[in-house]
Structures are given as C-alpha cells and as structure tokens.
Write a structure and sequence with these properties.
The complex is a heterodimer of chains A (about 160) and B (about 180).
Chain A (H helix, E strand, L loop, with lengths): L1 H21 L3 H32 L2 H8 L5 H13 L4 H13 L4 H14 L4 H8 L1 H29 L1
Helix pairs in contact in A: 2-5, 4-6, 4-8, 5-6, 6-8, 7-8
Chain B lengths: L1 H58 L2 H10 L2 H14 L4 H9 L1 H4 L3 H13 L5 H7 L2 H11 L2 H12 L5 H4 L15
Helix pairs in contact in B: 1-7, 2-3, 3-6, 3-9, 6-9, 7-8
The chains are: A mainly alpha (about 160), B mainly alpha (about 180).
C-alpha cells in the first residue's frame, strides 16, 4: 500500500509540474479533482457499505463452488456475465469487485469480471445503442465476449502458476 | 450521479435487511466494519487519485487528442487511437459524442473500434481508482493481460471491415461537414 501511494503521489506531482510548465492550469486541475472528489464521495461511501454487505452475505460454499480458482471456467463465465450486470461507474463497481475478491473469488473470475465490466457494463448500453445504433451495440457485445473469457482464462492460468 | 446514489442507497438498504434477517445484528455490524476498514485503507489513495484525475483533465484537451487521431493510419493508427481513447478523460457524456464526431471526419471504422476499446479497457484516469478501490497487484495483472485487447480488436476490425468508414455506420445528418472528406 505504501508503494502504491508513493507511485501515485509521484505521478500526481509529475502531472502537476507538467501542467505548470505546459499550460499553467495546475491549480485548475486541483480544483477539478477536488470538486469531482466531493461530488462522488457520497457514492463512494455508499459503495463501500454495499461492498461490505456483499462480502459478508456471499455464502462461502457459493464462492468456493462458483467463483474461486477451483471453479475454473465456471467462475470465468460467471465473472463475464456478472461484469455485464454491474451497471455502474468505477466508484461503485470497484468496491463491489473487491468484495467479491475478498469473499474468495479466483484471479480468473476477478479479471473476467473487471474486463467484462470495462467492455460490456450495461450502464454503457443506452449510450452505445443511441449513439451508434442497436445493431452496433449487439455486434460489439458479441465481439467483446471472447476477449473477456480469454482474459479470464489467462488470469486463471497465472493464478494456477503462482499458487 | 443522484440516480446512481439512489440505486446504491436502495441496494444497501435491501442488503442490510437481508443481512439482518439472515445473520442478525452481528452480521450487519461485520459488513459495516468491513466497509469502514476499506474506507480507512483507501482514503489517502483516493485523495491522491483525484489529484491525478484533475491534472490529466487539464493536461489533455479534446483538440490535442483530435490532432493525434488524424495523423496516423494502419497499425500505427490503431495503436494511437487505442492510446488516445485511454487518454480521453470523462464519462460517456463526453466520449460518445466525441466518437460520433469520427463519422464527420470519415475516419475508418477500425480506428473507431480501437478508440472505443482503448477507452473502455485503458481509461488511464480510472487506473488510480482501480488501484485504490480494488487492489494494486490485481490491477497490474489485469492491465498486463488486457493490454493487447484494443490493438487486437482494431486489427480484427481492420481485416473484417477494411473498406468501411464510420459514415457508413452512422447515418449522416444532411448538410453537415464536407462530403469530399468522407472517403479519404
């Protein structure tokens, strides 16, 4: 965690200096970041509460049988479907995915879930369908599913290798 | 945002009732304790994440990204589009109208696919949140595994839809743009 904070702080500082030299908008950037943080804080706190409840409510047997590394392909397919159903932004989705991880889900399931949420999250559906048409949305969904499954399978293989 | 908050609020309420029924007060407290621990652990990371998000937003203007997109084609175009897609900050309200503008520029469909997948998969302003809210190691593995996806998607689209430009996909509004640029 300390390493993550150090890396992220270095990135923040580098971007701040870059903006200072490039366009002088570094303070504006801080204001935008602060505004966005305050706007999304209630959502993040709500998501934490939701994730906490999911974590204690997912039965251990279900996690073991359907989501863990031992669940193999079953977990990856379930992760892909689950990612689609996570019709929410990153502030809410990541704490929920973290709670599924904490309940015992395998790496394959979590990577398939995240990739599927990135590509297929249903919250994007109304935008894609209205901007590009329903046909495009359906094609894109069909086109994306193999990528989610493949990402899950590779992660599952890595999980088996490192464990 | 208000709608999302309402959905989360209702979901929390429902799960609280379920937890209370299934495991009583003890289970509810355990869930809230877990939520509190996560909040404390990720507080500092979240603050830094939003500094990064704000700085990226002022660093990259739509005009700058637009310029990069028009300069390359082929495999270079696919890689640039995917990366530019990942760099474009903001939610669907910002990037879908931006992608829709590809139609007016007559950019090939594979550029749009690479851009869209780049935005969905890379989204560089989302990474700090993923690191803070999920897990740094899992995030790193996820990024490494999914790194080629926008490039592969762009290459596949290039092979499958070689001669289709984005104006074929979207019906053009009459009188918008210069028709001579459509098939360039």
């Amino acid at each position: 965690m300390t390493l993550t904070i150090s890396i992220l702080s270095t990135v923040a500082l580098a971007l701040f200096v870059l903006n200072k030299n490039e366009n002088g908008k570094q303070i504006e950037g801080l204001k935008i970041g602060a505004k966005q943080f305050l706007q999304t804080l209630p959502l993040i706190l709500g998501a934490f509460a939701l994730a906490g409840m999911i974590e204690v409510l997912i039965p251990k047997e279900f996690a073991q049988e359907w989501l863990s590394a031992e669940a193999g392909l079953r977990g990856i397919i379930l992760g892909t479907v689950g990612g689609m159903l996570l019709a929410m932004g990153p502030y809410a989705a990541f704490p929920i995915i973290a709670s599924i991880l904490a309940s015992g889900a395998g790496l394959g399931t979590v990577v398939a879930l995240t990739t599927s949420w990135c590509l297929l999250g249903l919250s994007k559906a109304p935008f894609e369908a209205s901007f590009f048409g329903l046909k495009f949305y359906i094609y894109k969904t069909v086109f994306s599913i193999p990528f989610c499954l493949a990402a899950g399978l590779i992660a599952h293989a890595i999980d088996l290798l490192i464990s | 945002m208000k709608k999302s908050l309402l959905v989360i609020g209702v979901a929390v309420g429902v799960l609280l009732i379920v937890a209370l029924t299934v495991g009583g007060e003890k289970l509810v407290l355990k869930g809230l304790e877990s939520a509190w621990d996560t909040a404390i652990q990720s507080a500092l990371l979240l603050v830094v994440s939003f500094i990064v998000i704000g700085q990226i937003q002022v660093l990259l203007s739509k005009e700058k990204l637009d310029k990069w997109l028009g300069e390359y084609s082929g495999i270079k175009g696919i890689v640039i589009s995917a990366v530019v897609g990942g760099l474009l900050p903001g939610g669907p309200y910002i990037y879908y109208p931006f992608i829709r503008s590809f139609a007016d520029k007559g950019l090939p469909l594979y550029v749009l696919i690479a851009f869209l997948f780049g935005k969905n998969i890379y989204d560089f302003t989302r990474i700090p949140l993923e690191v803070s809210l999920l897990d740094p190691k899992i995030t790193l593995i996820r990024i490494l595994i999914t790194l080629p996806i926008p490039i592969i998607a762009g290459l596949l689209a290039q092979q499958l839809f070689k001669n289709i430009s984005t104006d074929r996909l979207f019906p053009r509004e009459e009188g918008s743009g210069d028709p001579d640029h459509l098939h360039s």
